[in-house]
Specification:
28% of the residues lie in helices and 28% in strands. By secondary structure, the chain is of the alpha+beta class.
């Protein structure tokens, strides 16, 4: 039986929003905190124009998704298909402002499996792969960011630091979703992370 942790799902969902976005672009580019002058300049800037970006998956020749991105932004990434039965398609995209530090990033989905069956865990211990899915116990959102996502996707960034964490209880409720028949409700705590990379 494959179980999915809502905490891990939420952390992966939020990754593109909180890890990929840089706050205070002018200051971030210079590695400084924003000043009143930078904040005033940003508020008096011209309105932002959005354009439609459409991604057609070259493997199947159909539209995978579309979204609005700021005019002038560039896109890197795509959808990769594999023989992994648990996750046959993985996408990774980066939408970014070339002269600035702003970006939105969609990181690849991560799949995990966990059970409390000791016999199963003797033949498939934590850290091994079971049909392409990593065997690992569920973790909370903070642990998912600090032990899974940041080391895997942000380990090479010099000077990377988490600036602030704050609770986001409404987001946790949204990620858990409505109760389903036969499932046990599970409490979850969500937080948002801001950083300048």
């Amino acid at each position: 039986m494959r179980l999915q942790s809502p905490d891990l799902f939420l952390s992966l969902l939020l990754t593109g929003v909180v890890i990929g976005a840089a706050t205070w672009p002018a200051a971030a580019a210079e590695g400084q905190r924003p000043t009143g002058r930078v904040q005033r300049a940003a508020s008096s800037a011209a309105p932002l124009t959005f354009v439609t970006y459409t991604y057609v998956d070259p493997a199947v020749g159909i539209e995978a998704f579309r979204l609005l991105i700021p005019k002038g932004w560039q896109v890197q990434g795509g959808i990769d298909w594999s023989t992994n039965p648990a996750l046959p398609a993985a996408s990774r995209f980066r939408f970014f402002n070339p002269p600035g530090a702003e970006q939105f990033e969609i990181l690849p989905t991560q799949s995990f499996f966990w059970t409390d069956n000791r016999l199963f865990l003797t033949t498939n211990p934590p850290g091994t792969l079971r049909f392409g899915t990593r065997v690992a116990p569920p973790v909370d959102l903070d642990a998912a960011f600090s032990r899974l996502l940041l080391p895997q996707f942000r380990s090479g960034i010099e000077g990377f630091e988490v600036l602030k964490r704050q609770a986001a209880p409404d987001l946790a409720k949204l990620a858990v979703g409505p109760p389903r028949p036969g499932s046990r409700p599970r409490a979850m705590r969500a937080s948002s992370v801001s950083h300048i990379a």
